[in-house]
Amino acid sequence: MIDYRFITTTMDLPGYRVTRQCGIVRGIVVRSRSAIGNFAASVQQFFGGNISLYTELCEQARQEAFDIMRQHGTEAGGNAIIGMRYDANDVAPGVTEVLAYGTAVVVELLNPPPTPAASEPNAGS
Hints:
Elements: E1 16-32, H1 35-47, H2 52-75, E2 80-92, E3 95-109
Antiparallel strand pairs: 1-3, 2-3
């Protein structure tokens, strides 16, 4: 799968050049909240502050969508993803879609390290 270091929200990767675009890739996850989770979250909501159960649910959904996008990027022939974004929409009450998307590309180093020259025999040996 595409390395995390080669996924960016920008349209380029510093030190690399895009040699080919492979197309738009995405990862979609649709999640619902369980009744037990809703009850526990409502207790947290009653006392105020961060609702950690929902935070954890959202983070898991984003990570799954991100990983699916990485997989699709690899399948499309890319070694990087540029212009990466997240989006979320309610599909039904208590059901949310999380989308991670971007453009899969092939990148290569702008200035690759020089290839070591064949060692020359020592004149004094």
